[in-house]
Design goal:
By secondary structure, this protein is of the alpha/beta class. Keywords: Signal.
Length: about 650
């Protein structure tokens, strides 16, 4: 079909406020549509399913052409006339889209770049609401295919018997926190129960400070699966028994509410969570900037930050200029007040004693790298961070190991959630964790989608990824709060990846939740810098690079307890090692008379080598494999010992 070119007169809406007033007159439509949709979840009705696909903007003869495809996904397309709002920086326009096919091409010529379109914002079509339009409700929980209620402890109070009887009647599965499995959290609508002193949402959502004399029910979006609701239900012991009866009356009703609060038989609150109006599609994102005259030099920026207690400098891990900026900020903070500490993502908390020993001069650098398991825990070139650590060592500044053990976060990611951890591992986690900070799920999902393209079990794998990422932020925030509370006269420079510095939903709000302190975020300005709300200062840096490390051209692993050394697990035929005669399965046992016991020893030794330098390598080579079959009468082959070989090569 040829594209439908809509040349009709666009009706100008005077202002966004006018559109908001028009929306307020659509509440009845919205409620009717929401009730119909919830009924449709039980197969009672059929609604139109709409989607806007492939939106594009292009310049066309002095105007801006907006094109997209309107899709109807239900089996039989319906004839529809759909209002469409077109939002530009100056005005909001309205037109009508006509569709009676499964796929309707739409083209519009505009005088300015639209920032957004809103399809059917007045809820006039008999359609399914989009996820962004659908508020979480009790009805959405009770009508979900699978429902799960989680007690605050092993057993429920006796006074909850009527509630538990109702849940059993509705075939809601009731479990204790110890019975939570990762898949439960992504596949079921969730009901977290609390009794005013304990709650089952701990570790997933932050439980609000609800009144102790009222029953409160709050429906939220499940951060691990936003298509399903997560309900918080607080039933404090001090609440009157009549309130439980009133609660059950509301639960048995239509359930079209996101928040319900009852005290002494009276309804204190009965409301729906506000949502977006219409199917919204973001379009043009105009560039932003700052006046050149507003650009400050580094000295002025640091003077402005002189009273800030926590300063983050977000990095791209392999960008040397970022680490030079971190060191420059550390020097400036130290000049302002020598009581400054450095928090580093690169070290798990278990390495704190090794860090302390190195800073105290009790270890040399190679021993420090070995005992801190640098190459296992972080793996980035140590030289990127060396000068920061050396500065702290020279001036006797504390360095705080911020991170969790790598194995814990890896296990949470691989197995889908914290429920996969042992009780001992769970005891290492910060108890208060929040997966539902606004915008956090969307930001982490964008990173997840870059590296994960398989659709099979994607929701489960993303649940593990989201929990692992939030554990990093929560653990680092908890460790920072602990240090700052114990050292109220210290400031803190935080050296972490840029994704952990986002002011909206990374470490900063999680630290504020634990310990309100002044915080500022600095990130390097690049083409894809963070959103303005994510940082306080963007700094312009010249690209810098370290001298390239010499490479042997081998893939390595540990030799093992019975064969100490570094095993050559793979070798490049074009590398220095191959040219010198090193082969796969050789065991490197010495480098320039330095004994090599494992892969970390080799990495540390190579850290101090330079290109053009002559290197002596001692190898232990296994005997050549013998043929499995022998001719009759041939003698049994004799196994030889490993051969020791000395090789000299130029890096």
């Amino acid at each position: 079909a040829l594209p439908l070119l809509l040349l009709m007169m666009l009706i100008l809406i005077s202002s966004p406020a006018a559109a908001d007033r028009q929306k307020s007159r659509t509440d009845d439509n919205f409620l009717r549509l929401l009730k119909t949709q919830l009924a449709a979840a039980q197969g009672q009705d059929s609604l139109v399913e709409l989607a806007v696909n492939n939106p594009q903007l292009r310049e066309k003869k002095g105007r801006v052409e907006l094109s997209f495809t309107l899709e109807q996904s239900q089996p039989t397309p319906q004839p529809l006339e759909l209002p469409l709002l077109i939002v530009t920086p100056e005005q909001i326009y309205s037109t009508i889209i006509t569709s009676d096919q499964a796929s309707t091409p739409v083209n519009l010529l505009l005088n300015d770049y639209p920032t957004e379109i809103r399809l059917d914002p007045y809820y006039e079509a008999p359609r399914l609401l989009s996820r962004q339009e659908t508020p979480p409700t009790w009805a959405g929980f009770i009508k979900a295919p699978r429902r799960l209620a989680i007690l605050p402890g092993q057993d429920a109070p006796g006074s909850w018997a009527p509630l538990l009887a109702y849940l059993a009647e509705q075939e809601v599965e009731v479990i204790s926190p110890a019975e939570i499995q990762a898949r439960n959290l992504t596949e079921a609508a969730l009901l977290f129960l609390g009794d005013g002193t304990a709650n089952s949402a701990r570790g997933y959502l932050i439980w609000p400070d609800y009144p102790t004399t009222a029953i409160t029910l709050e429906a939220r979006e499940n951060p691990l699966n936003p298509d399903l609701p997560a309900i918080l239900l607080n039933l404090p012991a001090a609440a009157a028994g009549t309130d439980l009866d009133a609660l059950l009356g509301h639960l048995r009703g239509e359930g079209i509410f996101s928040k319900l609060q009852l005290r002494d038989g009276m309804v204190l609150q009965h409301a729906l969570t506000p949502t977006e109006a219409g199917i919204r599609v973001a379009l043009d994102r105009a560039p932003d900037g700052v006046p050149a005259t507003a650009r400050q030099d580094f000295r002025s920026i640091m003077a402005e930050l002189a009273d800030t207690r926590v300063i983050y400098v977000g990095e791209v891990h392999n960008r040397y200029e970022d680490h030079l900026l971190q060191l420059r900020v550390l020097r400036a903070m130290h000049r302002q007040n020598p009581k400054v500490a450095v928090g580093m993502e690169m070290f798990p908390r278990s390495t704190q004693p090794v860090l302390d020993a190195y800073l105290a001069g009790e270890l040399e650098e190679p021993q420090f790298l070995k005992e801190s398991s640098w190459f296992n825990n972080w793996q980035f070139d140590y030289r990127l961070y060396r000068e920061i650590i050396d500065f702290a060592r020279h001036h006797q500044l504390p360095i705080i190991a911020l991170n969790l053990e790598k194995g814990i976060t890896n296990k949470v990611f691989r197995e889908g959630g914290v429920s996969a951890l042992s009780p001992e591992e769970q005891a290492e986690l910060p108890p208060e964790r929040d997966l539902a900070l606004p915008g956090y799920r969307e930001r982490i999902a964008a990173a997840f989608d870059i590296h994960n393209h398989e659709e099979e079990d994607k929701q489960q794998r993303f649940g593990g990824f989201l929990q692992a990422q939030s554990l990093w932020d929560e653990q680092m925030a908890a460790t920072m709060a602990q240090f700052l509370a114990a050292h109220p006269d210290y400031r803190l420079l935080v050296v972490v990846g840029q994704g952990h510095t986002d002011k909206r939903n990374a470490i900063p709000p999680r630290l504020t939740r634990r310990l309100p302190v002044s915080q500022q975020v600095l990130v390097p300005a690049r083409e894809n810098s963070a959103a303005p709300a994510a940082a306080d200062f963007f700094l312009f840096l010249d690209p810098q690079s370290l001298p390239e490390l010499p490479l042997l051209g081998v893939q390595i692993s540990d030799g093992g307890e019975d064969a100490p050394g570094t095993l050559v697990a793979g070798i490049s035929p074009h590398g220095k090692a191959y040219e010198a005669g090193i082969r796969e399965n050789d065991l490197i046992i010495a480098l320039d008379d330095q004994q090599i016991e494992d892969a970390a020893d080799l990495r540390i030794a190579m850290l101090y080598k330079e290109r053009g330098q002559t290197l002596r390598v001692r190898l232990s080579r296994p005997p050549a494999p013998q043929p499995e079959e022998q001719e009759e009468g041939e003698l049994e082959p004799t196994q030889t010992e490993h051969e020791l070989i000395d090789i000299t090569l130029t890096l």
